[in-house]
Amino acid sequence: MIQKIFTVALVGAALATAACNTVRGAASDVNSVANTVDNNT
Asked: What pTM was estimated for this model as a whole?
């Protein structure tokens, strides 16, 4: 069970790294999520 959780976490981290491969990209992603949440409330 722990091995499955670790594998899922590892794959998730790899996908997150691939999605925003720079610090600026990560900040942009976070900002986009914050704007979406603000607009929907």
From this structure: 0.44
